[in-house]
Design brief:
It is built from 15 helices and 17 strands. It is α/β, with parallel strands linked by helices. The strands form three sheets. It has an eight-stranded mixed beta sheet, with helices on both faces. Strand 15, helix 13 and strand 16 form a beta-alpha-beta unit. The longest helix has 19 residues.
């Protein structure tokens, strides 16, 4: 039994050594011992390469605006570990986290002595989350984000009221497969018999897999661009403005504060899900509540403004699709600015390609590393960059402070910090404390 929160969290993190072990047998064993708390929760399951967190944020704020109690399970965390398990956007308390660890730990130790072996860090957190929402603090809805893929992801032990698959692109290919078809097949694993599926996937190969899986599972299927349409797109002073047409209704002049064309798609997908629940009589939400909720939505580390003079934006673009969305957003809102990019990534990512793409919009590029086992070396990132105006430093704090000082009072200059979400988290916390 742990008596201190830090000891409990260290025990969870210590399980990172077990790596990623796709499969549901350990989850089934653990949840069986806990009397299947996951069966008591009305759940919306969300998978996809990018956009999961933002789509969850849009749904969360619309449901909250109408007075619903909403649980969320997301990863990775940006500020505190506890935010992975939240109610109405508020992370669970340290005491709640401590008691969940103490309840799950004996079973984690028991299963280690079976053929199934040790549960991973993500399996432990997922079990704790199901226990919390199923036994201690039941929400009206749980918005549940997959960790990796879908079919063999630890979260895929539920029978959801509906499933959502955001976009599908290339990421985690060492586990999910080399082709879009392979990756889509893994994501499509969350589609359940008779349970509706909503998607914002765009690639033909992905859509073919999703629609075929939906047909096989007799699951009502709705895709952005076909069953859900977006029009009248225009940048708005504080974000984006557009209209959405769902199967049943039209929402005109929708305003969101998260910037970028990709965020319009995420928001449209979220609106179509909520609209479906309204039409089914599963929720009571007015048109005004949809509009107010969606306008309030924010997601940490997604093209987020965290400093004025100079303007500093953090964005956790950590794969090809994320980088393309970031570039598109820069062009959309800051095409006349001088852009200074501070970048760090994990060594197992194709960072050369990301750097080449970012160099097309950057005035200067700056590279660093951070305290994480798989972080790439600053000089390796620097060497991969072909832009003339570039620098690197082992100390991200030193490099960041240098950029802040050299760009102060330059209204036309913008600092964008991007790459690994772990890196973004460290910088974001540092800057907000400094403020």
């Amino acid at each position: 039994m742990f008596t201190q929160y830090d000891d409990a969290i260290n025990w969870i993190h210590d399980r990172l050594k077990f790596g990623v072990k796709p499969g549901l047998k350990r989850m089934d064993w653990l949840l069986n011992k806990l009397d299947h708390p996951e069966k008591n929760i009305p759940t919306i399951h969300v998978a996809g390469t990018n956009g999961k967190g933002s789509t969850i944020s849009y749904m969360l704020h619309m449901l909250m605006e109408a007075g619903y109690k909403v649980g969320t399970f997301t990863s990775p965390y940006i500020e505190t570990f506890n935010e992975r398990i939240s109610i109405n956007g508020q992370p669970i308390t340290d005491d709640e986290m401590l008691s969940l660890v103490n309840e799950v730990k004996p079973y984690a130790e028991k299963i280690e002595n079976t053929d199934l072996g040790s549960p991973t860090e993500f399996e432990i957190i997922t079990t704790m989350m199901f226990l919390y929402f199923g036994k201690f603090n039941k929400p009206d809805f749980l918005l549940l984000e997959t960790g990796l893929g879908g079919r063999l992801d630890s979260t895929n032990v539920i029978d959801p009221i509906l499933s959502v698959i955001t976009n599908i692109g290339y990421d985690h290919m060492n586990i999910l497969g080399d082709t879009i078809t392979d990756i889509a097949r893994e994501k499509a694993g969350i589609i359940k018999k008779g349970s509706p599926i909503f998607t914002a996937a765009e690639k033909e190969d992905a859509l073919e897999v999703l629609s075929q899986t939906a047909k096989e599972k007799n699951a009502p299927y709705y895709s952005l661009g076909k069953d859900i349409s977006v029009k009248n797109l225009s940048p708005w002073e504080y974000g984006e403005k557009f209209s959405v047409k769902t199967e049943a209704n039209t929402y005109d002049d929708v305003k969101i504060k998260m910037r970028g064309n990709h965020q319009i798609k995420n928001a449209a997908l979220a609106i179509s899900v909520i609209d479906y629940l309204i039409e089914q009589g599963a929720v009571k939400i007015t048109y005004d509540e949809v509009m107010k909720g969606i306008k309030k939505s924010m997601w940490k580390g997604r093209f987020e403004l965290i400093h004025q003079n100079p303007v500093v934006i953090v964005d956790g673009a950590h794969n090809d699709e994320g980088i393309e969305s970031l570039i598109d957003t820069i062009k959309r809102h800051y095409s006349h600015n001088r852009i200074h990019i501070l970048f760090s990534a994990l060594s197992d990512k194709n960072y050369k390609k990301m750097i080449d793409r970012l160099s097309t919009v950057a005035t200067t590029m700056h590279f660093t590393t951070f305290d994480f086992p798989r972080a790439a070396k600053a000089e390796d990132l620097y060497s991969a960059c072909e832009l003339d105006e570039k620098s690197f430093s082992m100390s991200w704090q030193g490099l960041l402070n240098e950029l802040l000082v050299s760009n102060e009072n330059k209204k036309n200059d913008l600092i964008i910090i991007t790459g690994s979400l772990y890196f973004i988290s460290a910088i974001r916390n540092y800057l907000l404390k400094k403020e």
